[in-house]
């Protein structure tokens, strides 16, 4: 049985055909990746795997209303027999406890203005896990328009499957480790056969913060390696920002009393950090030191905790890529060359191993939907027993540096979730596979952080050694 057939057999509800023509066509849609995946499944023939481009085009023309079209459609609905309008958009909700109603907001259409909006609980309760996302959720929305009152009477999320961890774990058992790595990379949009082992590991590492809370990392890579795609387009739980950085938008705005994007996402990426403008860098550095260590945010009278991981992404000179012998971070702003900040990162991804993204590296054929896969990653974040397995398996020498060991275990936990989600105890683990694909990459990633720390602050870090870690009973 081919791998494609195996994927279809085990995940018939979450498979999409990632052909070159399909990928190209969907690139023309100005929609998030999860919406594109849903549309791809909706208009793909399950037997032939062929996408019906005409029907897709007609659906989008009918359901995706431009802002200038929206008001006219609403007026048409107002004067129609049922007063309803159905369209595709992103909606978010808020609870108005004073009026005892649930309001909905359509930000792209600037609603509500003076219009009263409401949604019945029976609509919310069916898909409450989607509506709980403070950033909103995409779906097919049906609105009843009555004078100045708008009521959302129906909602269908752009998701044809449920995120059932039990099923996901059971299906993983039908694949070898090598096959499962191909499944993961294919689902995330990459042709596994185009990468060597080091390239596969580096690619998988990009997604570790999606399965493990507050896992912080740095990727130094060359241009065109698909970094922005991985960190912003694959998962709806990711947030990428570039250009400028402020404490108010990232963590908490003392004026509006609203939390920032670290509180509403699983992972936050600062892109192009070599050119990022930082508002009050000393203040931000102090904020990050506390947050990266404990997840705590203290600003004025506000105290809160978030669990988003932080990823720093920057381009490096192709001739300056020896992380062990060169200070790769030397060209970055001063804040990113402070040892107390960098020491709080779990690993450095050697993005050079990934290389530039080319056509032969694009996933083709039947693969898991990226929306389904990253949705399962989100579910895995709250599973804490994997860390218990890591704690039980690994032992280090008595004088080992605590922070290094802790960061290694954090990365190992994330890799265990990603590659071996089906294991429930130490007895389920193949020690050789664990050593090669979990422990060694975790040690290497943290070792590269320590190498850079020695360049930044040799006086403090030259004498700090990487812990000697063993697998119990191995």
Q: What do these coordinates show?
A:
- The chain is an alpha/beta fold.
- It has 3 domains: 67-157; 186-361, Rossmann fold, CATH 3.40.50; 380-471, no CATH class.
- The chain contains 19 helices and 20 strands.
- The protein has helices at residues 3-10, 20-27, 33-42, 53-63, 67-78, 121-126, 128-131, 165-172, 177-187, 197-205, 227-233, 247-250, 281-294, 339-342, 370-380, 385-393, 402-419, 431-456, 458-461; strands at residues 15-17, 84-96, 101-105, 116-119, 137-146, 149-157, 217-221, 238-241, 244-245, 252-253, 258-259, 267-270, 277-278, 296-299, 302-305, 309-315, 347-350, 366-368, 394-396, 469-471.
- The strands form 7 sheets. The chain has a 5-stranded mixed beta sheet with strand order 3-2-5-6-4.
- A hairpin with a 4-residue loop joins strand 10 (252-253) and strand 11 (258-259).
- Helix 16 crosses helix 17 and helix 17 crosses helix 18.
**Within the largest sheet, what's the order of strands?**
3-2-5-6-4
Query: Regions with pLDDT < 50 over 5+ consecutive residues?
Result: none
**What portion of residues belong to β-strands?**
15-25%
Specify the helix fraction band.
25-40%
**Overall mean pLDDT score?**
88
CATH class of the largest domain: Alpha Beta
User: What is the radius of gyration computed over CA atoms, rounded to a whole number of angstroms?
Assistant: 24 Å
Distance between the termini: 34 Å
Indicate how many domains the architecture comprises: 3
Query: What is the number of helices?
Result: 19
What profile does the largest beta sheet have? 5 strands, mixed
- Structural class category: alpha/beta
CATH topology of the largest domain: Rossmann fold
CATH architecture of the largest domain: 3-Layer(aba) Sandwich
What is the number of E strands?
20
Shape estimate:
globular
């Amino acid at each position: 049985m081919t791998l494609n057939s195996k994927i279809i057999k085990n995940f018939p509800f979450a498979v999409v055909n990632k052909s070159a023509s399909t990928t190209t066509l969907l690139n023309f849609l100005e929609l998030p990746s999860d919406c594109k995946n849903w549309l791809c499944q909706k208009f793909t023939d399950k037997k032939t795997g062929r996408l019906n481009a005409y029907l897709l085009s007609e659906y989008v023309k009918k359901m995706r209303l431009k802002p200038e079209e929206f008001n006219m459609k609403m007026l048409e609905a107002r004067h129609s027999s049922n007063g309803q309008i159905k369209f595709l958009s992103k909606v978010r909700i808020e609870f108005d406890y004073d009026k005892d109603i649930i309001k909905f907001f359509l930000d792209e259409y600037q609603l509500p203005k003076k219009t009263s909006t409401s949604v019945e609980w029976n609509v919310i309760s069916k898909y409450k896990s989607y509506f709980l996302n403070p950033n909103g959720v995409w779906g097919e929305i049906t609105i009843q328009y009555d004078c100045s009152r708008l009521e959302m009477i129906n909602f269908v999320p752009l998701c044809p499957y449920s995120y059932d961890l039990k099923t996901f774990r059971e299906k993983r058992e039908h694949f070898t480790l090598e096959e499962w790595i191909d499944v993961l990379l294919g689902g995330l949009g990459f042709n596994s056969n185009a990468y060597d082992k080091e390239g596969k590991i580096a690619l998988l590492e990009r997604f570790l913060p999606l399965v493990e809370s507050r896992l912080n990392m740095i990727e130094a890579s060359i241009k065109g390696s698909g970094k922005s795609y991985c960190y912003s387009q694959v998962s709806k739980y990711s947030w990428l920002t570039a250009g400028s950085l402020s404490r108010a938008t990232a963590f908490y705005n003392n004026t509006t009393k609203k939390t920032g994007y670290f509180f509403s996402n699983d992972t936050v990426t600062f892109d192009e950090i070599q050119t990022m403008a930082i508002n009050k860098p000393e203040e931000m550095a102090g904020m990050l030191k506390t947050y990266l260590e404990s997840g705590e945010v203290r600003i004025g009278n506000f105290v809160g905790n978030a669990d988003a991981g932080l990823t720093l992404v920057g381009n490096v000179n192709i001739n300056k890529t020896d992380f062990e012998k060169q200070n790769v971070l030397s060209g970055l702003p001063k804040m990113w060359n402070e040892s107390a900040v960098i020491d709080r990162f779990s690993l450095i991804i050697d993005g050079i191993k990934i290389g530039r993204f080319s056509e032969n590296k694009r996933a083709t054929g039947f693969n898991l939907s990226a929306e389904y896969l990253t949705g399962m990653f989100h579910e895995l974040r709250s599973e804490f027993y994997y860390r218990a397995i890591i704690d039980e398996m690994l032992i280090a020498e008595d004088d080992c540096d605590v922070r290094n060991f802790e960061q290694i275990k954090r990365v190992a936990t994330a890799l265990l979730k990603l590659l071996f989600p089906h294991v429930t105890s130490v007895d389920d683990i193949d020690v050789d596979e664990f050593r090669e694909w979990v422990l060694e990459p975790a040690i290497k990633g943290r070792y590269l952080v320590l190498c850079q720390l020695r360049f930044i602050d040799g006086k403090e870090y030259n004498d700090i050694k990487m812990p000697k870690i063993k697998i119990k009973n191995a």
